Amino acid sequence: MNKVCAVFGGSRGIGKAVAQLMARKGYRVAIIARNLEVAKATAGELGGDHLAFGCDVAKEHDVQNTFREMEKHLGQVNFLVNAAGVNRDSLLVRTESEDIVSQLHTNLLGSMLTCKAAMRTMIQQQGGSIVNIGSIVGLKGNSGQTVYSAGKAGLVGFSRALAKEVARKKIRVNVVAPGFIHTDMTKHLKEEHLKQNIPLGRFGETIDVAHAVVFLLESPYITGHVLVVDGGLQLTI
Ligand code: NDP
């Protein structure tokens, strides 16, 4: 199978689990992150024909360059996963404007830039599938996460609009919205306390999210959907 899957934020956490699952299914995977060494190590763990690329999704020339390199070394991108994200919890009144801008650049603008870069190829090949990683807080909001929630809510609006815009070109765009998942991003949280609100009684694992992402990537008749993967947390908040 020669289809290519680009995973932005694929070097660690949720993106890494998606990359592993897609590689196991026989797709060629591009692992993309700012830290090229870590991305290379992850690509190496997958074995086979998978490659790593260094890129900051917040920078348009980086993103365009990465798409050019991916096409040169792996071929045209069929699947795109946007898992690159950062989270700096703070109350809005204590958040510096520069922090607002830099979070939105990575969490929202970054996905817009990668989707835009992917469109050229996907329109040309009349097909493609994109999954953007949102968050349950983008749907529900969370105190101390106004900027993060706004970015993730924006991603839902963006993804649904793009899904409408490109459906006739057989390009699908969906969102997976996770709850609390065990990754570097959540390791500072007080799990014992937080998991009391989760009906399934635990934080999720990256593989729990990866299965949902791969399901949407491969589902030919689903577009504009937001799939929540949160152990039932949305039922309680
Ligand atoms: P991690 O911190 O474990 O991994 C983040 C990944 O994104 C890394 O590969 C990191 O690599 C990359 N990354 C971060 N900033 C950039 C950037 N500017 N350009 C390119 N790559 C970047 O996070 P998670 O796996 O937990 O999160 C993945 C996604 O899921 C994020 O969008 C996050 O918001 C979302 N999410 C996570 C939840 C959780 O509970 N963990 C819950 C809900 C949503 P590098 O640092 O080298 O660039």
Automatic annotation (TrEMBL):
EC number(s) per UniProt? 1.1.1.100, 1.6.5.10
**Per the database entry, which stretches of residues form a coiled coil?**
none
What is this enzyme's catalytic activity, as reactions? a quinone + NADPH + H(+) = a quinol + NADP(+); a (3R)-hydroxyacyl-[ACP] + NADP(+) = a 3-oxoacyl-[ACP] + NADPH + H(+)
Q: What is its main location?
A: mitochondrion
The alphabetized UniProt keywords are: Fatty acid biosynthesis, Fatty acid metabolism, Lipid biosynthesis, Lipid metabolism, Mitochondrion, NAD, NADP, Oxidoreductase
Cross-referenced PROSITE patterns, in alphabetical order? Answer: ADH_SHORT
Domain of life the protein comes from: Eukaryota
Pathway(s): Lipid metabolism; fatty acid biosynthesis
Q: Where in the cell is it found?
A: Mitochondrion matrix
Biological processes annotated in GO: daunorubicin metabolic process; doxorubicin metabolic process; fatty acid biosynthetic process; protein heterotetramerization; protein homotetramerization
Cellular compartments per GO CC: mitochondrial matrix; oxidoreductase complex
What is a single molecular function from GO for this protein? NADPH binding
Which Gene3D superfamilies has this protein been placed in?
A: NAD(P)-binding Rossmann-like Domain
- What family is it from? Belongs to the short-chain dehydrogenases/reductases (SDR) family.
Its subunit composition reads: Homotetramer (in vitro). Heterotetramer with HSD17B8; contains two molecules each of HSD17B8 and CBR4. Does not form homotetramers when HSD17B8 is coexpressed, only heterotetramers (in vitro).
Q: Any idea what job this protein has?
A: Component of the heterotetramer complex KAR (3-ketoacyl-[acyl carrier protein] reductase or 3-ketoacyl-[ACP] reductase) that forms part of the mitochondrial fatty acid synthase (mtFAS). Beta-subunit of the KAR heterotetramer complex, responsible for the 3-ketoacyl-ACP reductase activity of the mtFAS, reduces 3-oxoacyl-[ACP] to (3R)-hydroxyacyl-[ACP] in a NADPH-dependent manner with no chain length preference, thereby participating in mitochondrial fatty acid biosynthesis.
Q: Which PANTHER family match?
A: 3-OXOACYL-[ACYL-CARRIER-PROTEIN] REDUCTASE, SHORT-CHAIN DEHYDROGENASES/REDUCTASES FAMILY MEMBER
Protein name per Swiss-Prot or TrEMBL: 3-oxoacyl-[acyl-carrier-protein] reductase
The species this protein was found in: Dipodomys ordii
- Gene (name only): Cbr4
